[in-house]
Design brief:
- The protein is α+β, with helices and mostly antiparallel strands and 175 residues long.
- The protein has a single domain, classed as minor pseudopilin epsh fold.
- The protein is built from 2 helices and 8 strands, in the order ααββββββββ.
- The strands form 2 sheets. Strands 3-2-1-5 form a 4-stranded antiparallel beta sheet, covered by helices on one side. A 4-stranded antiparallel beta sheet has the order 4-6-7-8, with helices on one face.
- β1 and β2 form a beta hairpin.
- The termini are far apart.
């Protein structure tokens, strides 16, 4: 009698579990209210995140352009000292670019490197250029620039200031 009782209990438990699983399968969808609440929360989060993301992209572009210009200023100075020959950088603020004579372009193999700040990955503009009254900056064979230099690089409203003193030290700051 005990064995029959246990099997009846086991059968009733199995039936109860099966009916609960069938009921949970029937209720697997979401109500319209739940969907609207989740969509509203996602919209609020997107409204907060998208402007911040855009601002960080703008800051990254301006920083990338400023860092490239600062690195090229340092490179020109080091090349002049290494070669014991002058290196000239010519700036074109209208076309947001600059060239470095005597520096081999790794893509074309020519003896002049041209950097376009308004193209990818920088997508920035070369703003103010002040290199002693002209558009060229010459590093002599000792790495000394012919004048101090001040530049601005602008990327979607973010402005970076690049300064080079008479000793050739380059600093970057945000305006």
């Amino acid at each position: 009698m005990t064995a029959g009782c246990l099997s009846t209990r086991a059968a009733s438990r199995f039936a109860l579990r099966a009916s609960r699983e069938a009921a949970s399968r029937a209720r697997r969808g979401f109500s319209l209210f739940e969907l609207v609440v989740v969509a509203s929360i996602m919209a609020v989060m997107a409204a907060i995140a998208i402007p911040r993301f855009g601002r960080s992209v703008a800051r990254a572009r301006a920083s990338g352009g400023a860092n490239r210009l600062a690195a090229d200023l340092r490179l020109a100075r080091e090349l002049a000292m290494t070669r014991s020959a002058s290196v000239t950088m010519t700036f074109d603020a209208v076309n947001d670019s600059y060239t470095m004579t005597g520096v081999i372009n790794p893509i074309t193999g020519s003896g002049t490197l041209r950097v376009e700040l308004d193209e990818r990955p920088y997508l920035s503009q070369l703003g103010a250029v002040s290199v002693g009254g002209d558009t060229s900056l010459v590093f002599d064979m000792y790495g000394a620039p012919d004048s101090i230099a001040i530049f601005t690089v602008v990327g979607q409203g973010i402005t970076k200031l690049i300064q080079m003193d008479a000793a050739g030290t380059v600093t970057i700051s945000e305006l």
